[in-house]
Write the structure tokens for this entry.
Amino acid sequence: MELAVIGKSEFVTGFRLAGIRKVYETTDNPTTESAVKSVFEDKSIGILVMHNDDIGNLPESLRKNLNESVQPTVVALGGSGTGSMSLREKIKQAVGVDLWK
């Protein structure tokens, strides 16, 4: 399984420098939506990393798909997104067990 990152240039640059190959650099909401849809179609991607603010700007139906997705598991970083799941909750959803207990 591979890791993918979607976001603006300043968000994805560090991941690109770290050697992540599936980096989708976006500039606006339509390109972000398109990138998310293509990641869902790519079955080799196991984890999707996005900025919380970018997730918040997506249409409600796509946000719901991201929040309920097991593969890829979506990890939201940064921003002020109070409504999204924590990393612990995402791991519990993907694995089926709370690994911190």
Observations:
- Residues 29-41 form the longest helix (13 residues).
